[in-house]
Structures are given as C-alpha cells and as structure tokens.
Amino acid sequence: MASSVLHPSPAVAELLPVPPAAPGAEARVVDLDELAARCTEFRNRGLKVAHCHGCFDLMHPGHIKHFEAAKRFADVLVVTVTPDRFVQKGGNRPAFPETLRAYSIASLACADLVAVNRWPTAGETIRLLRPAFFVKGQEFETLKDPTGKLQEEVAAVQAVGGQMRFTREQVFSSTALLGAHFGLEDRRAEDRPLSAQSRADAPAAAEPPRAAAGPVAEAAMNAAELMREIGAIAALRVCVIGDTIIDEYHHCEPLGMASKSSVVAHRREAEEAHAGGVLAIANHVAELCGQVHLVSVLGAEADREAFVRGHLHPGIEARFFTRPDASSVVKRRYLNRRNGQKLFEINSLPASDLPEPIQDEVIGYLDKVLPEFDLVLVADYGHGFLGEGIVGALARNARCLAVNAQTNSANAGFNLVTRYPRADIVCIDELEARMAAGSRDGAIEGVARRLRDALDARAFVVTLGSRGCIALGQDGQSVAAAPLHDPRLVDAIGAGDAFLSYCAPAIAAGLPLDMAALLGNAAGALAVQIVGNRRPVRRQELIDYLCAPAGPMPVPVPPVDSAATAVASMPAAAPSVPAAPTLEPPAAGADAYPDAYYRDFVDRARRVRVTDGSGGMLDFAGGVLEASAAIDAARRTGRKVMFIGNGASAAIASHMAADYAKNGGVRALAFNDAALLTAVSNDIAYEQVFAEPIRLFAEPGDLLVAISSSGRSPNILYGSRMARDKDCRVITLSGFREDNPLRTLGDLNFYVPCLSYGVTEVLHHSLCHCLLDTYLNQYT
Fold it and tell me: Is the distance from CB of 195 to CB of 480 less than 8 angstroms?
C-alpha cells in the first residue's frame, strides 16, 4: 500500500508515463483502452487500483481531498471523467470541456492516470478497468437512487470482485459553485413548481451541500410514486383530433448582399421535415397512454400520407380524411445555418373551411367512435379542419373533452376557445386567454376564472411562458407553478404542445392538479431542448429529469466478507479460469466460474439499453412495447418483417423469420438463401448481400430487424441504410462498443453492453423472442 499520496512506490512509478510531480500532465491523460491495459499490468504485479469517476466540471478543494483520500485506499489512483455529451446538469454545462477536465485532474500529484469515459455512467467502465476499489464521496453513501445509476455501479463493482469505498472529506458542489460565481446554475430544482415547494419538508439542520435535486425529490416524492402516478395515465384510451402540420426546416448559408437589390442572398444547405401540429401531440401522448387514436385531415397529395404515417408512433391508430380542394398544411421555416436564427417563414394553408361533404363524413365518424374514449384531446390550430359542425360533435360525444385552441398568425382573433360550447379541460396560453375574455390588462387568474366558469371546465390551465402556469380547479383549487427552466434552449417551438400532451391526460386520469402542472412543465422544459418536433418527449427521460437524486436512502452495498464477495474477490494467484480477451466474465476460481458467468449474464440482460432514432434513451419496457406495436402495424397493413444477420446472427434471423411467420401470422423472411448470397457477393460485392435484396423486395412500411453483435458489419450497415431509403422502419440489435454505428440507424435500437459474442448473441436471440411474445400477448 502506498505510504504517501504524493510519491508512489517504485513498482507503480515504473509503470507510469511520467513521474507524478513532473510537468506535462497531459502524458497521464490516456485513452480508456490504454487505461484498461495499464490496470491489468498493475493487477498482474499485485498492486491495488482505486477508481474515481465523475463530471468534475469545476476543480475545487473537495475534489482534491476526495482524490487524496481515495489514493490512500490503494497503490494506484485512476480517474475517469464523464464525456461532454453525457453531462446532464442543466445550464451551459459542462463549463469546461472533457479534455480540460481530464488535464486538471492529471495535474494533481495523487492522480496517476486519467481517461475520458465513453459511456454515460461508470458501470461499464468499472467492468473494463476492474479496480480493487471504486471510491465515491460521503454524500453518496446515503443517497436516494431513483434512476438506478448508483446501484448499477455497485453491481459492477461486485461483478469484478471489487469493493465500494466512501471518503469522509469536506463536501462542495461544482453545480452550486458555478451557479454562485459563474451564473451557470442548474435551475431544474430552483425553479420547481411553487406547489411542490410548499409540500417540501422543512430543511434539516445544517448538512453538507449536495447536488441539486429534481423537483419530485424535493417534493418528497420518489421515483416509485411518480411511476405509480404515470401508470394511472397509461390506462387511458385517448382520441386526439386536430390539424396536421408538416414542419419543414431549411438551413441556409448567408452569402452576402445581393448586387442588384437590398436583400441578403442565402444558399440552402440542408433541410428536414417533422410531423407537427396534432401529429406531434399524438406522438407525445403515445409516450404516456397505451391506446391512442388520431383523427385529422390531409390534402390530396398522395406522398404526404406516407410521410405522416412514417413519422407516427407505431402504437397510434390513425384515421385521415382527405380534402381534395387544398394541399396539406406545410410550414416552411428558413434558418441561418450558423446561428439558427429564423430568416422568414412561408406557410401553405387552406383558404377556407373543410368542404361540407367532408365535414359531414367526419361528423358521422366522430358520432360513432368518440364515446369509446376516456379522453378526447383537441388540438385546434385554426387551419380549417375543426368547423362549427365538428366542434358540436366533439362537445356532444366526448366523455371528457380537453381543448387547446391556438392563436397564430393565420387565425389571430378568430380561433378562440369560447367557440366551444363546453370543455372539461382547457389548456391555452396567456394571450389566447386574454383574447377569448376580451381582457388585455386584467389579472390573469381572474381572466382564467371567468373562462373556466363560462365553459364549465373542471380544470382550466393557462401557460405563462417564462413565468410558468396557473391551473384552476372547479372546487376553488388554484395552483401557481413556476417553470422548470433548462437554459439549454434549442427551439421553443412545440413546448406548449408537449405541456398539453402531458398535463391534460394527467388531469383526465385524476392526478392532483399540482402534479399535472408539474408533468406539463417538465415536458415543456424537455421539449425546448429538441429542434421543432424532431421527436417526442419520452416518458423515461421525463421521469429521469424529475427524479434527480436527493435525500437519504441506504445504498445496498453487501458486507465485504459475504460469500459472494469472497468468491468474486479471490486473489489472482488462486486457481482460475483465464479471463477471455473480451475482459468478461470476471476471473474466478474454476469451481465458481459457471456461477460467475451466469451472474454476469443476468446482470447484462438487466442492463440492455434502448434508444430511439435520435439517440434518446427509452425505458426497456417502453422500447419492447413500441417494437411489438411496429410488428403489429406491419401485420395489419400486410407489410413484411425482414431479418438480416451474419454467422450466428444469420441463424437467429432464420429462426425468427420462421417463428414470426408460423406463430405470429406475420409475413416474415430472412435473406439467407445461399444462391442469392453467393450471386450478390460474386457479381456485386459482399457488403451488398443484404442491401441488394432489400432494394428489390422492400416496400414502404416494411420492418427490418438488423442483428449484429459488433454493430459494425458493413453488409448490415448497408442493408439498414437501404431499408431507411425505402421508407421501412428499422429495429437494430447490437452489442460490443456503445458507439457502434448500427445504433444510429434504427428507429429503435436495442444494445447489449457486452464484449462477448456468446452472451451478446444469446441476449439478441432472447430479445427477438421477447418482441414476438409481447406482440402475441398484446395484439392477438
């Protein structure tokens, strides 16, 4: 054991790139894989490694004391820092980039080696480095862990035979210091809803500062309680009706002043299109509710419906009516590519209300289906769809009617909520409320109260932008909720829709008014971090956002002398099965190897990660349900489910094609015909063995399941890209490195955090069965 934190033993010093006291600390900042190799060398020489991990955004005395104390546990101290892309602390964080944060730590005499992590949390890093001790500060010893990140670290330490250690040093907070002295505070806790503040327990006696807590934690509600509340919403059957809007973003490069006119010329560089209006709201609601039905109208262009359906959550059933006299609503925004500033906007809008025959068809449909739903949510943008007759049908048939009647540049003064004869839930902004009440300067609560009484609404919510919202109940209940600011504002468009989509179903499900306002505010805060309606606010990210850890809860660290720990901690000199080159499963005694293998297997199964097409994290159950809904959508529309894979993954593909067809009644196939494979390989290229048949046989709306342990096989990547080009939905199953390219190509991406082919392949096989069995359970 090292006797000094400043001077390592000779055995350690000879393995270090430079003496710790020497200048040029950048030499001790190494790649993560190199750090893993160094840790292996240390272990082989009988040296103990202590590992610290964190953001370390602002180096302060608390960090230095923590590192010095951690070094006393072992011979070597290694530190990993959170990559910039995974820092989620609000504000313009991190204040310092990952390279400077790593360099700052490497400049300390007590830090032997430093690396930038490649994962969001330390769990996978611990498995890679296999330290003897994983060291956290004392504030984590009794910390609530609603997101499970700390428990993941504890499980990883156990899996590699290490031990948790906690330092007992003075605690500071980088977040608090940055806020106090640099204006980079995390306002997610500071600006929590006022009602939640009033419910929070009185602060205890002076205690060490800790990281800012999320608003739910501050309101004395834990993640389990929040999940129960949200679970009540999931049972709702919701019909969403309103105007379809296609939002186009055209990113332009400014060229300069035109030579013959006083305008700035621009060159269009890129463009993207999003499903906006009622489509965005339906996608948000589908994150919360298990049954969502969409009713809207499109223009006569055939290609628009394909685009719209391709951008809907797979769990949404949609009924589109067609108006032959107008095109679909398209809003084209032209932006400066350099700073995102909007240059101008051009809208394609109908010039009149819905033709009477089409309106009568819609009314007949609503009279038939609306009574089946627990909630009818109206997104009225005033673009000609919801005329007087349809409004009457909504008021007549809806068991619970939630209305948002928007004021915008196309309908200012003509699309007021007061044209609805009744509404159970109203959610509008302050300008819309003032215009509806004809009150420019009156107190907004009085304005809302008059409108609530006129509509006989049981809940009336007015959003106030940067000032939060107010919500009025029928029983005199009044809630004023401050906004949940997140200064990482990317685009404010769609924030109000996200608020409505989470708040209205919460009220309909019977949640308290303050909790409904809290969910709406949180959804709005997350929505401003998304460009337009590129994707919905995910249920799991909202839960993670609200449940930032705070308050005491014991961390389940088993005693170090437990039998399981004793087995996993056997010294390297004991008889053992050599660790695989993939660093897993953890080395153990030969008689304990099978148990260790399956413990590791089960642990990795529990840590399968699911992301959407934009990289947003999904909870596992939500991802499986979304995938099973995509399978059902393919079956209902007569589309195909295609499987591709190499080697063992090809065997999985063939097996699943047979099972999905025989047991699921799905048109399923795998492109594993030997003649086709060899023909394409010989005549074109092996990289195209899947892309070419997909090009020939795939149709828009088909579903591709791409399976690759590494996520890097060129033929799988080419096949997945071809499926996207053919407007197919794509589900990917990958493993090995977290940054594998296949994870960026799917609408849903299942990732197994494992470097072993056997474990990864078996879990992929199990996932395919899980998707099929969930589909059979849910839809047959």
Answer: yes
Q: Are 26 and 109 in contact (CB under 8 A)?
A: no
CB 226, CB 506: distance < 8 Å: no
Question: Rounded CA gap, 387 and 358, in Å?
Answer: 11
pLDDT digits (tens, 9 = 90+) for 402-454: 999 998 888 777 889 999 999 999 999 999 999 999 998 888 888 999 999 99
- Check the CA dihedral 116-121-125-131 and report its sign: positive
Distance (Å, whole) CA 397 – CA 363: 10
Query: Whose CA is closest to 415, among 238, 243, 239?
Result: 243
Tokens 């305008």 label which residue? 263
Query: Residue 476 to residues 195, 453, 461, 472: CA-CA distances in angstroms?
Result: 15, 11, 13, 7
Beta-bridge partners for 320: 296
Tell me if 166 sits within 8 A of 142, measured CB to CB. Answer: no
For residue range 616-654, list pLDDT tens digits in order.
888 888 899 999 999 999 999 999 999 999 999 999 999
State whether residue 642 is helix, strand or coil.
strand
Q: What is the pLDDT of residues 558-593, one digit of tens each?
A: 332 322 222 222 223 222 223 333 333 344 444 556
User: Checking DSSP bridges between strand 478-481 and strand 748-751, what pairing results, if any?
Assistant: unpaired
β-bridge pairing 469-473 and 459-463:
antiparallel
Q: How far is CA 264 from CA 253, 340, 403, in A?
A: 10, 16, 42
Element (H, E) at 10: helix 10-13
pTM of the full predicted structure?
Answer: 0.51
Please give the Cα distance from 129 to 118 (Å, whole number): 13
Q: How far, in whole angstroms, is CA 481 from its chain's centroid? A: 25
* Residues belonging to the chain: 780
Peptide bond into 585 cis (omega under 30): yes
